[in-house]
Every structure is written in C-alpha cells, then in structure tokens.
Amino acid sequence: MKTPAAGALPGAPLVELVDVARHFDVSPPWLNRMLEGKPRALLKAVDGVSLSIARGETLGLVGESGCGKSTVARLIVGLYRPTRGEIRYGGRRIDLDGARRPVRREMQMIFQDPYASLNPRWHVSDIVAEPLLAAPGEERLSGPAIAARVAELLEQVGLVRADGAKFPHQFSGGQRQRISIARALAGSPKFLVCDEPTSALDVSVQAQVLNLMRRLQRELGLTLLFISHNLAVVHHVADRVGVMYLGRIVEVAGTKALFADPQHPYTRMLLEAVPDLALTGKPRTAVAGEVPNPLEPPKGCAFHPRCPYANERCRVEVPLLKPVRRAGADAGEAACHAVEEGRLARSPTVRV
Amino acid sequence: MVDALLAVTDLRVEFPTRHGTLVAVDGVSLSIARGEVLGVVGESGAGKSLTGAAVIGLIDPPGRIGAGEVWLAGRRIDNLPAEGLRRIRGREIGAVFQDPLTSLDPLYTIGRQLTETMTTHLKLSSSTARQRALDLLGEVGIPAPKRRFDHYPHQFSGGMRQRVVIALALAANPKLIIADEPTTALDVSIQAQIIALMKRLCREHGTAVMLITHDMGVIAETADRVAVMYAGRIVEIGPVADVIHDPRHPYTQGLMGSIPSIVADRDELAQIEGAMPRLTAIPAGCAFHPRCPHAFDRCRRERPELMPAGATRAACWLVAA
User: Does ipTM top 0.85?
Assistant: First the structure.
C-alpha cells in the first residue's frame, strides 16, 4: 500500500465522477410535518454529475451560488458521501467504506476563507506541520526533518522561515492563503481541490496567489480542481472548464473552445454578463430571471424558464451531455436540446 | 467646478486611538456633476467606503471628519447638526449598500418602508405615497408590485432585495446616490441586471451616483469618471476610458494588469509585490513607494499631489518629471 495511488491503472484519468448525486434532507421537523401536514423536502445539491480530470490538468468548475460546485468538491475529498454514483481516483473507487484511506493523503483541499480555515491559536509552523505529523508511523519524519520541511514549504509559497513562529492573525488575507497552500502541499499531494481560493482576496493579491498556484502546479506536476464563480479567474487558470447549473453540468470543454464559442445558452449568458473591461461598447444582454428555488427545480431542462430558445421538449425532457461540434481542440459536450437539434444561432455570442 | 453637485475638498477622516490618531482618508478632493457617475475604486482599506460614509455623515464614532469640507448643491453639509444631516439623508442623498439585508428593516413590509420614506421626506398623503411606491417597485423590476407590497424583506431573493433597496434610495427623488459595493454580494447574471437597472434609473431621474467598488469591471460598465484610491488618498482620477486604457500611476497600471480577463491569454498576471500598508504604518513620501517598481529618491521623501498626466490626473512624481 506504500506505492502512490495504490496500483493506479495506467491511462485512466486521475479523478473520475460517474453519475454522482448528493441529496440533502431539508424536511421540516417531524412535529411540523405531522401538525401542519408539511411534506418531506429533498434538496438535490448535486444531481448526476459525471466528469473526469486527467493527470496534470486543471479543471475549472464555474457556476452561480447554489449550483452545487462546492458540494462536488466536498464529495471528491470525502467531506460528504455521495447519495448515488461512483467516485474513482486513479481508476479505483474511493466512495466505498474504507476505500479512501490509501489515497487520502494524495488529495488536499484549499478553502475560500483564509480566516476560518487556519486555527488562530496555533503557530504557523504547527499548522503547516500537521499533515506531516498525521503520516503513518513508518513514514513519519523526525522532529528536525519536519522543521526543515516546514521551512522549505514556507519558502516555496513565498513566505520566510521566520514566519513559522507567528500566529495567523499577524498575516494579511493573501499571506494566510499562502499558509493554506503550504499546509495543503505538506503531504506532497498529487491532487488539489481549490474551492474559491481567491474570492476573499483583493485583485492585486489574487494575482499573486494565482501566479503562485500556477507556478507550483507546473513545478510539482499537480492535478487541480479549481472552483470559482469568477469566469475570468477560471479562464486564466484552467485547461478545461465545466459549467454547472442547479446541480448538473450543462457544458464542459477545453477552456479556449468554451470561451471562444460557448454552446449552452446558460454558458453564453454567463459570458455575456461578465463586465467588459475593454470598453468595446458591445451591448450587454441583461438576462432575465434568477436561479430557481433548488427545492422545486423546473421540470425538464432546469434552465428552460430563463432560456430564450426553450420549446416543448425542453420543458419535459432532461437533456443529457452530448458531444458538440466546434472549432478548437477538446470541443467538449453540452446538455441542451437546442444545441443538439441545431436550433441555436451559431454565432459565438447571442444577442437576444 | 462651480456647478458641481457634490464637492469634497481636502477631506480627512481620522480615528483617535491610544497609540495616536490613525488617518484613514487623507486629503481627498473630488467633485461630482449633476447626473454624473463617479466611480471610486480601490482595494480593501483604501478608504473608499469611508469617503462615501463621510459624505452622508455616517462615520461611526470614534471616527470623525478631521478636516475638509463637503458641499452639496452649494451648501456646506459636513458641519450640520445630526438632525439636519438626517433630513438630507434619504431626501437629497440616497444610499445603496452591499448587503441589502442591512439596509432593510426585517420587521416592516417593504411597502411600509417605502411609503414611510416618502411621507417623511416629501409630505405626501399616504394614498399618493402608496401609488408612488407601487410605481417605483414596478420601475425597478419587481414582478407583481401590488402583491409584493405587503411582503417582508426575507421573502425576497438577494437580487430582488437589492432592487427594493434601489427603489428605497430613489423614493424621495434624491440628487445623489452613494452606492457602496451595490453588486458585490450578487451573482454575475444578477449583477448585470442591477447595473443595467441603476444606469437606466439614474439617467431617467437625472441622479448623480458615487459608485464605490473594488471591481474595475463594474466601473468600466457604469462610470463616467473614476477615482483610484490607495492608502487613504486618490492616486489617479480621470475619465473612465483613459484611466483603464492609459493609466499613468504605477499603482493603477499594476491594478489593471492584475485583473484576469476572459479575452486575453496571459501566462502570468502582472503582480504588485507586497500589500497595502496598514493605517498604523503608512510610509513617508508617496505611500506606494515600497511597492513601486519605478520609485526613486524623491518618492521616499516627498508626497506627490495630483497633477495633470495626459487625460487624467495622477499623484506621482514620474508624471512631474
């Protein structure tokens, strides 16, 4: 069991999700259900997501609040158990009882809020050393070796050795996020799940952290799942991008192809909504409507009430991800009846 | 500058502490013309929100306006007693804040909040106020205003709440709206809707806006002119297109370069080393000099004032040379 990825199958994607779902029971308390006749309520936070992440690749996952992107992250690292579906790592299922242990140290997570994710009462060196101390007996480093490794990690993320003796409150938001990254890298992981790692940071600090993450990924050959609501950030870091809406992936493709020629009407809408910094004066489509209540998602395609191309079929039949034709490598897939039937204007951007 | 709606001169906001007085806004001067949208952009701690709060007299003690003047439509308002300021807030200056829930009273229906604002400031009868409130709700895009009139804030989504707050800010027909991060808490598709709404309404009503945000994209879409703030001071101010396409201050240049884009392919984002100084340790001379790639001797000794630099004005010794 000491070999990495415990006998990974060659050629298999590093991480694979097959029809993964996670439902939350958000029913009112039993007494209210009895007295007021309220029904049970099921929140389908993630409802049938399939995706794969190749070794060394960065997959970006975008979507608006409540679309289920953070739940996907938590399912992969094992903070939630899937209600349905399979999660594979190196070709092996890890969602079953006890199957996660051999690979647990190979994946790490970086959270959004660098204020909440570091213990305020610990020295930075203890925070960064914690994954090293959690190593199983025969792999555990000696005290001096741990101290040396912590110093090396701090320098790797652009801090200095002496910072280890400080407490988290002595650092700014960007520096705290560097500490989180150092902690995540301590156990030499192969796969990092980053859930909005720069959303709490100012743009100039965000640029520092994004540059750092790209450099580390290249140097260490990491595989990344990068979750963000910010399309520009995802465009900058990701090789491939998946777009989520109400618990499903509606489009996934290579970053270039997706941004140059978005297919799904929701992807087009998101791209249109990004403020235009170049001041080209292109008319911006103000999209009507809001994300529906996830407790009562629309029938058929969840996007149909907001979609200008919706027809009868969209209102009844849930669209599945199907390959699309477009220029560029990795043309990807989209889950849209209109795209499949060729009902959509093929212009790169919709002007509704 | 004579016909400016709002004129702020040499504004200084300070916080007395045990270890001396901290200066959070230092010598800020700006003006907004009638119907103009002035963007105020900067990173956390730049002093942009405090500048807005000083204009509407909402600096929380122990913070105080240490120096400077605020003039609204030819009348000095920073030295008014609390009661006088209260009458100006809502009537002549409306406010939209980041979190719509903090601007709305959870215990009152939105209809009551709107009509109360109008009857307080405009001396309207309750039936006229009700009709005007319904019109406003329709105008800001609340579907079925008649039904929604009697709903409480918690019954609205985030985007709809921000629409209600905008209706509330416009209720008494103010000349100026201070909008502090009005779209930051919203998803990108809702953000686009709210920006379009604010632009349209302010144009129709002839309302001037001071738009405070950290998001250069929102400024680019909305503002006529923009002021870039750093460590309590304006470092560059000018027409939006010029500041974005041809920034003259090294901080503005760094800021623009560090914004990722959905169009351009860049391997590395431009990076400004370090972080904004804390209020307790603002460097002497130009506050940006420790992070500035072009800093020279004079920057460390002397503090630059805003001076003409192409189409904008920048506080930098480079443009003086």
Answer: no
